[in-house]
Write a structure and sequence with these properties.
Layout (H helix, E strand, L loop, with lengths): L1 E2 L14 H11 L10 E3 L14 E12 L2 E9 L10 E2 L2 E3 L7 H13 L6 E6 L2 E3 L4 E10 L12 E8 L1 H4 L5 E7 L2 E10 L2 E4 H15 L1
Parallel strand pairs: 2-8, 3-9
Antiparallel strand pairs: 1-11, 3-4, 3-6, 4-5, 4-10, 7-9, 8-9, 11-12, 12-13
């Protein structure tokens, strides 16, 4: 495990509110069309890793909840019986379907299906870089502001738990750490954000790293 002095955090990140979050995301977003945006992924820490030849398009929502004590990130824990990424902490989202108008529509639809949050409760304020996973997904993340009060109705088949963590964990200089494990005889590296007894890793952590870069840019 390596603790990361991966980014430096300055005073300018303290006390982020909704308007400042929106401003920083707008500044971060590339003017290039979606097809030419930067692509990040599990290969970021594993330069020799090649993604599958065919990638399934997917989209997630990075929900930022505006609480009285500050902004918080809403996350889910997937149920243990799912075929892909079972038991992992994730953002609400999933595959893009033919009936979806675009990736953002897919992220909002999947969010409603997974946790019962209707699209009209979400103010999308920006998007992050496309993220490619070793498991074969090409994920487009969207950041959305959610203002309380709201009621969630998690789908018990897909979602074991819904919880929130402070946005500050993304800006904490102790996060992320870089961990490794052996997968099929090869050493693989990945980011981990820790908050209390929770370990956020995999694609979710990779997207949070990109979110951090957006907030620091």
């Amino acid at each position: 495990m390596e603790q990361g002095d991966i980014f430096s955090v300055g005073r300018e990140t303290v006390g982020l509110d909704r308007e400042e979050l929106r401003r920083r995301l707008l500044r971060f977003e590339s003017p290039l069309p979606s097809s030419r945006r930067r692509v990040r992924g599990d290969h970021d820490l594993n330069p020799g890793m090649r993604p599958p030849a065919q990638l399934r398009p997917a989209a997630v929502l990075v929900p930022v909840v505006e609480r009285e004590d500050g902004l918080r990130i809403l996350l889910t824990r997937r149920t243990d019986h799912l075929a892909a990424h079972a038991g992992q902490i994730s953002f609400p989202g999933g595959g893009v379907e033919p009936e979806d108008e675009n990736e953002m529509a897919a992220a909002l639809r999947e969010t409603e299906e997974e946790i019962g949050l209707p699209p009209e409760r979400v103010e999308v304020v920006g998007r992050l870089d496309t993220y490619v996973t070793r498991s074969g997904f090409r994920i487009v993340p969207y950041v959305g502001i959610i203002r309380p009060p709201f009621t969630l109705r998690p789908d018990p088949y897909e979602v074991a738990e819904v919880f929130e963590v402070p946005l500050d964990i993304v800006l904490d200089p102790g996060n992320p750490e870089r961990h490794s494990r052996t997968v099929q005889g090869t050493q693989r590296y990945f980011y981990v954000f820790q908050h209390e007894d929770r370990f956020i890793w995999g694609a979710t952590a990779g997207i949070l790293v990109n979110f951090r870069q957006a907030l620091m840019s």
